[in-house]
Sequence to fold (168 residues):
Amino acid sequence: MADWYLVVDGAADPGLYPVTRETRQHACLYEADYPEETLAALPHLVTLAQDEKLAEAWRRHESGRFWGMAIRSSLGFKPLRRQLRKFTTARLPLGDVVLFRFWDPRVFATFAESATPEEIGPFFNGIEAVIIDLGPGGRRRYAWDGGLVVQQAGQTAAASPAGAISAP
Fold:
């Protein structure tokens, strides 16, 4: 059975990290002993549980804030984290290795929609769907069926007037 997960971009909003830490299952996509302020800005994989604060904040306030992405996968938490970690860097044409912020919806949309099947296909190993919110561009759902399938994923919610979530 597939579950929903979030890849939360702590750099997108300083209020995200404290709420992410309160979830039952979360882990940074990077493995190192980072200072707390650095860790707060890194991407975290979170099991989406509807009864937690993060799920409610995501539903009510994420639209147009580029907080990250939702992923449906049957891999389980640890295997999904291993899968996603493979994509945290990219090799440029001249050989330089750079940070690849695939969890940023704007980056993912550009990558997914311009990549060759050989480039994007491996991302979907064990991943059924990815949903991103592009603000005024709406929500998009991405899936792999021997080729990339892109659909509008419904209306975006109105952005919060506060502009950020509050840390507890």
Notes: The longest strand covers residues 3-9. Residues 155-168 have pLDDT under 50 and may be disordered.
